[in-house]
Amino acid sequence: MRVIFIGDVVGRGGCEALMAELPLIRREYFADIVIVNGENSADGNGIDPRSAQMIFDAGADVVTTGNHVFRKKSIDEELERNERLIRPANFGDGVPGRGVCTLDMGAYSAAVVNLIGTTYMQPADNPFRAADSILDRIDSRVIIVDFHAEATSEKRAMGYYLSGRVSAVLGTHTHVQTADEQVINGTGYITDAGMTGARESILGVEKDIIIEKFLTYYPKKHVFADGECEICGVCMDIDAKSGKCLSIERIKRLCHS
Asked: pLDDT for 187-237, tens place per residue?
């Protein structure tokens, strides 16, 4: 089976680029499953029902999120309603939504797990222990983990920790696609899948705002950049019977629409 994972979608521009290009990407790669991280897809920040629906309309089977998932309170009800829209599983008890989604593909199933790191991030339950607990409850052979984390060391550690036990550990959050894709003992890995958003930006935000913050240390409201967008992610071939990843390659393309 073939799985495509698309990195953090940023703002309306990222959503529109995804709607224009993802159907083409899906057909080009003959993808069976498409997973998209949409935690920054709403205007301003976070994710809301409108931006989530745009991502699903573009062709996503599952939408994962991260530390900004609860920025828009309007998403809470949608997280409870839509089983294919998930948030990090190691958030504290009592928050809306779920951290695991299982897709019934007929002859097989595929589980998508969303976790968040704790290094330089907001407090959360230990993601390594949370992964152990989740894997004890999952029957699927194919397991894709979106690990939303800041530190490259924590992401690498999770890749090795889960190697041989899941089909893939895919890093998100830092918005810069890394060139370290590899298969570790049957587990596809990349430190960061990259961003879907304005190419001429700093992590999707207007570059002059971020440069001024570095020059003056004076806080300014982030505004998502406009202009030509790029779509970043990975494509993986996975053996559905064993759950082993056979190959992983980066996807990076410009959207001219």
From this structure: 999 999 999 999 999 999 999 999 999 999 998 888 999 989 999 999 999
Q: Report the DSSP pairing between strands 182-184 and 195-198.
A: unpaired
Residue with tokens 């989740």: 134
Q: Which tokens belong to 173?
A: 């959050």
H/E element, 240: none
Interval 47-86: pLDDT, tens: 999 999 999 999 999 999 999 999 999 999 999 999 999 9
Query: What's the CA angle centered on 177, arms 171 and 180, to 5 degrees?
Result: 75
Of 174, 177, 161, which Cα lies nearest the Cα of 203? 174
CA 114 from centroid of its chain's CA atoms = 8
Closest CA to 28 of 256, 257, 253: 253
Rounded Cα distance, 131 and 136, in Å: 9
Q: Where are the domains of the chain?
A: 2-255
Residue carrying structure tokens 């982030």: 222
Which residues are CB-neighbours of 142 under 8 A, at least 6 positions away? 1, 3, 108, 109, 110, 111, 167, 238, 240, 243
Nearest in space to 145 (alpha carbons), one of 188, 108, 96: 188
Query: Cα dihedral angle (245, 15, 79, 47), rounded to 10 degrees?
Result: 120
Determine whether 173 is an active site residue.
Answer: no
Domain 2-255 has CATH 1.20.1250.20: no
Contacts of 216 (CB under 8 A, 6+ apart): none
